[in-house]
Design goal:
It is a single chain. By secondary structure, the protein is α/β, with parallel strands linked by helices. It is 53% helix and 11% strand. It has 25 helices and 16 strands. Strand 14 and strand 15 (584-586) form a beta hairpin. Helix 16 packs across helix 18 and helix 18 (412-428) crosses helix 19 (436-453). The chain is elongated, with a radius of gyration of 40 Å. The protein starts with a helix and ends with a helix. The structure holds adenosine-5'-diphosphate and zinc ion.
Length: 648
């Protein structure tokens, strides 16, 4: 009970009010819209209405009864007595069908409510130089008088001045909207495009996200913190401010972020990194500032920055520099340092290119926790299919596990697409239930579209990849001092990698002995060796392994002084940049041609002898490798425990 009260106390005031008025259904919270822009629009609207009203009054009330006629007609009307009074302007003449006294009398009948007399008529004509006019007027006894200005009203002035200005303002507003993107007035440069989705709205829970159990487990703590920040405050524990979700597109990163907000029942801000980068220098930075200001006001809440790489690209990477992006990134760093996690704002962000992120973003206090959201394995795919199949009617004969088996390498988004396609096909066929055949056709369709995006392996390739990865894993398990195998997978990942074996170190290592370095080379060669043993031929799949193995061997000789001939001597060939890790500048080779030849030969010798050793090892363990590879083909991913069990 007490806890419950506590929860309510944390909810921002607006949220409580919101609930009473309209439970749930609001799409966007109006509060989040920049206020000044709203006012701006408001006054502009009134202004326009006034101008239009004035124009209408002018034309209908004053001009409607004015009849423009030719001068000859004008004169004829004077002669015939239709015009009793004439106003002479500099350039034109206005004739009235009644005298001044008559007009006064007429307006009295109007206000008095008696039946109106005939309304006065007004005629207008251009005034030519006619000296006879005055004589004629005198002759006919017409009242006449002159006015100094031809333009009769202040209204004309008003319109000729105000209308262009109003149009200009409109145009300016339109232009600034174009520049600033939707929802941006020029008056609110920095104001944010992040939309706040109120509590009931994300509506997503962890149950809607399947197949990414590891990621979910990492995020449970965040949910707990958002629900109950006081608990953490009391103990003094520090929750990470920023969590980076890393994984290929369509694996459910956005969905996970939504689910965290939904589970914790906190407001959810979503903005894409690309939206920060604008045409004008400083706008992006202002936007970041604004976003954090809003977030702090709504705490506890969750901010989700999609495509973080758009702003977070390593500063060293861009040639020529991009001031705008750099400023935006700096502002983001400043803001992240500036607030205390206890304030209850958590920042999730997503990227599918973690390798290009600026290292500064990944430092403690920023996005110091990274969560891998990978393509789902077989059981993951079954779960995801189940989640999406909840929304469609399936025939009893549909076996989702079989569907999952036929879709290796598919992401959650692909699977959602398949379920949807299958349902559409069923509707098109006039059925009210989805049959297994619909799924087959749907997969075919999606695969045709997918093949361009990411390669799907044919069965033979899958078998090769399975044996290759098992080779790595078995060698790792048999090498003394090698990091234990954490996970083996034959799910294609990123660009190029068709499968992967993850080894996790048991402890931090800063020194590596010669033997350990050689062990690393062994593990890397294990993949190709296994291919050779089982298929009698080698494939291109090991190119990355070989590059890395060669690299280690070269470093042993040139950097670590571990060769016989140049023991304890460094042979520098590359100078690496001190402050930009990972970037090396081609430097001058500082040794002779013959030394280079020695290095090349020595590398070949090391790799060659290690490869022989690995071949022998794997041949001895052929049966084990075969069993594990078979299992891997079946389930696609093996965890640490399963692998160990199979090894025995
Ligand atoms: P990302 O942000 O990683 O590119 P999204 O979160 O936008 O991917 O996923 C797109 C859609 O695909 C989701 O709305 C959901 O319908 C579906 N989807 C993706 N991953 C999953 C998953 N793990 N479980 C259930 N549905 C998923
Ligand atoms: Zn490999």
């Amino acid at each position: 009970m007490a806890e419950n009260d506590d929860d309510k106390g944390i909810l921002p005031a607006w949220e409580k009010k919101d609930k009473k008025e309209k439970p749930g259904l609001k799409k966007h919270d109006p509060l989040i819209k920049p206020l000044n822009r709203k006012q701006f629009h408001f006054s502009l609207l009134y202004f326009l209405i006034t101008v239009i009203a004035l124009i209408l009054i002018n034309t209908y009330l004053f001009r409607a009864k004015v009849e423009s006629i030719d001068y000859s007609d004008f004169k004829a009307k004077i002669v015939s007595g239709n015009i009793l009074r004439v106003e002479m302007g500099e350039k034109d003449l206005t004739g009235f069908s009644k005298t001044k006294a008559q007009i006064e009398a007429y307006s009295k009948t109007q206000s008095g409510g008696r039946p109106p007399a005939e309304p006065p008529k007004t005629f207008k004509t251009v005034r030519p130089a006619d000296p006879e006019l005055i004589t004629l007027l005198d002759q006919k006894g017409v009242e006449y008088y002159a006015v100094s200005k031809s333009d009769d009203s202040w209204l004309g002035t008003l319109i000729s001045w105000v209308l262009p200005i109003a149009l200009m303002i409109l145009f300016w507003n339109f232009l600034s909207k174009k520049i600033g993107g939707p929802g941006q007035g020029v008056m609110s440069f920095g104001a944010n495009k992040a939309k706040l989705v109120a509590e009931g709205d994300t509506g997503v829970t962890f149950q809607d996200v399947a197949g990414v159990d590891e990621a979910k487990a990492e995020l449970v703590e965040i949910v707990d913190f958002l629900k109950n920040p006081k608990k953490y405050e009391a103990v003094g524990g520090k929750i990470p401010k920023g969590v980076l979700l890393v994984g290929p597109p369509g694996t459910g990163k956005t969905l996970l972020a939504r689910a965290v907000a939904g589970e914790a029942k906190v407001p959810f801000f979503r903005i894409s990194g690309a939206e920060f980068v604008e045409m004008f220098v400083g706008v992006g930075a202002a936007r970041v500032r604004d976003l954090f200001k809003q977030a702090r006001e709504k705490a506890p809440c969750l901010v989700f920055i999609d495509e973080l790489d758009a702003i977070g690209k390593s500063r060293g990477f861009s040639l020529g520099g991009n001031d705008e992006r750099e400023q935006t990134l700096n502002q983001l760093l400043v803001e992240m340092d500036g607030f205390d996690a206890q304030a209850g704002v958590i920042i999730l962000s997503a990227t599918n290119r973690p390798e290009i992120l600026d290292p500064a973003l990944l430092r403690p206090g920023r996005f110091d926790r990274q969560v891998l959201v990978d393509r789902p394995d077989l059981s993951g795919r079954v779960e995801i299919l189940k989640v999406h199949a909840r929304k469609v009617k399936l025939d009893l004969s549909v076996d989702l596990e079989k569907v999952a088996r036929g879709t290796p390498g598919f992401t959650g988004a692909d699977l959602a697409n398949i379920v949807n396609e299958a349902a559409l096909l069923a509707v098109r066929a006039g059925r009210d239930k989805v049959l297994p055949g619909d799924f087959d056709s749907a997969i075919e369709r999606v695969v045709a579209g997918l093949e361009k995006k990411n390669r799907l392996l044919n069965p033979k390739e899958r078998t090769i990849v399975a044996h290759h990865e098992t080779g790595h894993a078995v060698v790792a398990a048999c090498t003394k001092g090698a990091d234990p195998v954490h996970k083996i997978s034959i799910i294609p990942r990123g660009i190029g990698a068709l499968g992967y074996t993850i080894q996790l170190p048991t402890e931090d290592r800063f020194l590596l002995t010669e033997e350990e370095l050689l062990g690393k080379i062994d593990v890397l060669l294990g993949g190709r060796a296994s291919e050779e043993i089982f298929f009698g031929e080698i494939s291109t799949g090991a190119s990355n392994d070989i590059t890395r193995a060669t690299d280690i061997a070269r470093k042993m000789i040139s950097d670590y002084g571990m060769s016989d001939k140049f023991a304890n001597v460094v042979l520098p060939s590359q100078r690496s940049s001190l402050f930009l890790p990972g970037q090396s500048m081609p430097g001058q080779r500082e040794y002779s041609e013959s030394t280079q030849q020695y290095i090349d030969e020595e590398i070949t010798r090391i790799i060659g002898s290690r490869y022989e050793k690995v071949l022998a090892l794997l041949k001895a363990k052929k049966d084990v490798v075969e069993t594990i590879a078979k299992k891997l083909l079946e389930v696609e991913t093996l965890g640490e425990e399963e692998f160990k069990n199979l090894l025995k």
